[in-house]
Structures are given as structure tokens and as C-alpha cells.
Design a protein that fits this description.
418 residues, alpha/beta, glycerate kinase, domain 1, Rossmann fold, 6-stranded parallel sheet, 6-stranded mixed sheet, 16 helices, 41% helix
Length: 418
């Protein structure tokens, strides 16, 4: 189905609005602004940057510090890997942890070991940091943690549930970095990919208190029906009594320097007076999220913006991610409800990567379903198989941006022309 010139213009507009949201989460500017407003206390600095925005955050921090840190370690995923002069650079697996990440985690723990009261740790934290720095608790292996991660991703667990469990299986998460660095002071500049910006959940809270206890992690896994599928060593670890309370280590100076909310507000400024914010918490299963976006369409013409992070229950073996599936679901829902063709919807990850794919998300319109069928594919069948990537690709509606160097969860733009 050929698009009208008006829909093409709307699609271009949606993309420019999305890009404004990504720009607002620019990690370099965020770090520079924070350190200019509140410089670090005096002392020898150890810099540890981890997450999808780590290279850009580290480069900006090293420039802002003036004097080079005593040691700098940067851990990121392959797509965002970039040289940081003066730093030790590590590439690691995401979203599934790998041996490279385990080696990076050991390097970080070694760098923090033995620091004194006059030392300073500057932690630069961004989304993806949890998977990139796997440091299995005693008695667990990397394979154990990778299997838990895989099960959680496929179950539809949200980021808070995932981090609740991950923290109980790690030496770095849930305040682990604070424990490793003590008695050194820790300042963390945090780029949030978690809706609500709970520092305990961002990258699994390495510089914050844990989200809960082993008992609560067990309960979450049982509620998802995952307990019996867990590796035996993980079940044994979570069934042990809680460790004796550690002495108080104080708290980090945790500074939120960017977030999903700030990016949605920047999109609203780019969109102008015609824009309204539909939801800053477009979360939960993609089927429910599609219904929420549809309600915004029924509210009438205009531009509606969304922030959040949905989940997908994986039942098939196809290719795709939560943003691609949400976009495809909305296209099919619009077809069933008989919407006119003059609309478009962009849904994408701010990091430029949607799940285990090279796409950021999808940009669909009233002709998407027809174009998929014209290419010889059944969009309903593809959706049922969690195979949204080839369906959207066939329609010319797969959004590929490449890695953006930042991560503040997902952004959505719905444009209804009439």
C-alpha cells in the first residue's frame, strides 16, 4: 500500500521528535553539567564507567576532571564500543552476560579493592550495566546467571523484578560496588533507563541499597513459574539464610543526570503546541500497551508522546523486540478497528537497540499490515511467533538507527492527522 505524502511527512516528523528525545539524554553533556555544578571532593580518583553510554560518559568526565584519574575502567556493549584515551576499555555481552563481562567485573572489583578514606570513586552508570558486569555470588557460575537472565527475559518480568533477582546473585549489584570500594567515597552519575528513576533498580543498583531480600526474590521467581527451571545452584543460593548484616558503609552521592521523563519532555518541546503526553509509564505487556496507545488515537488528531518500557512474554522463536512487537500490534489493532490511513506510530529504544536485534524499533502507519501481506507474509502469524522483525522489515517499517550511545528506556510518538 503506497503512503500518501501527508503520511510520509508525519513519519519524518515522528522521527525528528524521537531524535530530540535521544539528544536530551546525551550522556556527555549530562556528565559535564553535573561535574561543573558539583565538582568531586579532593582525592585520588578511580573512575569506573559501565553501561551503554559508558564511553561517552567517561570521555566527558575525564575532560571535566582536569587531572587524569589514577585509574579508569570503561565497560560497554559491542555496539557502543569507542576508544576512551587513558582508560582501560572492556566490551561485554548484552542482554545476556558473557565471559568478557565476567572478566570486566573482576577487573572492576580489583580496582576498587584496597582504596582508602582519602580516595574517590567516580561511578558513571547507564542502562545495560547490570548485564555488562556479571560478578556471580560465591558458588554460582556465569552460566547460572546467564540462564536466570534468559528465563527472566522470556517470562515478561519487568526491570524491577529482574533486578530484584539479579542483586541476590551478584557481588557488585545491590550496593556491591559500595561494599567493594569502602572506605573510599563514591559519587555516581546515573543515566536512568528505569521508569520512576529508582536508583536501586538502575543497572541493578551497584551504588544503592538492594531492592529486597532473597526471600522476596524467591517469591518473585515462584510467581513467574520459574523456580523449578532455575539452575540447582541458584535455588540453593536463594534458599540459604540471609547473610549477616554488613556494617554501615554510608551512602553514595547518587546523582540522576538523565532520564526517560526528561527525554519525553524534550520531545514535547520539539513537537510544539500540538503535542500531549499520553503516558510516562507505558509499561507492562505489549498487548496492554497497544490498547493504551489506541486510546490516545481515539482522543482525536494531534501528537501523543509516550515513555516507558514494556515487556513481552516469549511464546515463539522469531526475531524481534518489545518495541517492534508493540508497533506491529498497534498496526494490526488499527486495521481491526478500521482506522483511516492518515496516522503513524514510532516506538523505539532510546539506545538504538530493541532486544537481541540490530533494530531500534518500528515506525508503522495505516498501510503497514497491507504491505506485510503484499510481501507474502502473514502479520498475525508473525506476531504470534514473536517474529515482528521480518514482518516490519518487509513493510519497510523497521527502524534502524544504530547505537545512540545513551539509554533512557523507550520512547513513542503517535501522530494522527485527522
Amino acid at each position: 500500500m503506497t503512503r500518501s505524502a501527508q503520511v510520509d511527512e508525519a513519519r519524518d516528523r515522528a522521527l525528528s521528535i524521537f531524535r530530540a528525545g535521544v539528544r536530551a539524554a546525551d550522556p556527555a553533556r549530562a556528565v559535564e553539567r553535573s561535574l561543573a555544578e558539583r565538582p568531586l571532593p579532593p582525592g585520588r580518583v578511580t573512575l569506573v564507567a559501565f553501561g551503554k553510554a559508558a564511553p561517552r560518559m567517561a570521555t566527558a568526565a575525564m575532560h571535566a576532571l582536569g587531572a587524569p584519574p589514577a585509574r579508569a575502567l570503561v565497560v560497554t556493549n559491542d555496539e557502543n564500543l569507542a576508544e576512551v584515551p587513558g582508560a582501560e576499555l572492556f566490551a561485554a555481552g548484552h542482554p545476556v552476560p558473557d565471559a568478557r563481562g565476567a572478566a570486566a567485573a573482576e577487573a572492576v572489583l580489583a580496582a576498587l579493592h584496597g582504596l582508602g578514606e582519602r580516595d574517590q570513586v567516580l561511578a558513571l552508570v547507564s542502562g545495560g550495566g547490570s548485564a555488562l558486569l556479571p560478578a556471580p555470588a560465591a558458588g554460582l557460575t556465569l552460566a547460572d546467571k546467564a540462564e536466570v537472565n534468559r528465563l527472566l527475559l522470556a517470562s515478561g518480568a519487568d526491570i524491577s523484578e529482574m533486578n530484584l533477582v539479579r542483586q541476590q546473585l551478584s557481588r557488585l549489584k545491590g550496593g556491591g560496588m559500595l561494599r567493594a570500594a569502602a572506605p573510599a567515597a563514591v559519587t555516581a552519575l546515573i543515566l536512568s533507563d528505569v521508569i520512576g528513576d529508582d536508583t536501586r533498580a538502575i543497572a541493578s543498583g551497584p551504588t544503592a541499597a538492594p531492592l529486597g531480600t532473597r526471600e522476596q526474590a524467591r517469591a518473585a521467581l515462584e510467581a513467574r513459574g520459574l523456580w523449578q527451571a532455575l539452575p540447582e545452584a541458584v535455588r540453593q543460593h536463594l534458599e540459604r539464610d540471609e547473610a549477616a548484616p554488613l556494617p554501615s558503609l554510608g551512602s553514595a552521592d547518587n546523582r540522576l543526570v538523565g532520564s526517560n521523563r526528561l527525554s519525553v519532555e524534550a520531545m514535547a518541546a520539539e513537537a510544539g503546541d500540538a503535542a500531549r503526553i499520553g503516558s510516562l509509564a507505558l509499561c507492562g505487556d505489549v498487548a496492554s500497551a497497544a490498547e493504551e496507545v489506541a486510546r490516545a488515537w481515539h482522543a482525536g488528531p494531534g501528537i501523543t508522546l509516550f515513555g516507558g518500557e514494556t515487556t513481552v512474554i516469549v511464546r515463539g522463536k522469531g526475531q524481534g523486540g518489545r518495541n517492534q512487537e508493540l508497533a506491529l500490534r498497534l498496526a494490526l489493532l488499527a486495521e481491526r478497528q478500521g482506522w483511516p490511513a492518515d496516522w503513524c506510530f514510532l516506538q523505539a529504544g532510546s539506545d538504538g537497540r530493541d532486544g537481541p536485534t540490530d533494530a531500534a524499533g518500528g515506525l508503522v502507519d495505516g498501510g503497514t499490515a497491507a504491505r506485510i501481506r503484499a510481501a507474502g507474509l502473514d502479520p498475525e502469524a508473525r506476531l504470534a511467533a514473536n517474529d515482528s522483525l521480518p514482518a516490519l522489515d518487509a513493510a519497510g517499517d523497521l527502524l534502524r538507527t544504530g547505537g545512540t550511545g545513551t539509554n533512557v528506556a523507550d520512547l513513542g510518538v503517535l501522530i494522527r492527522l485527522s
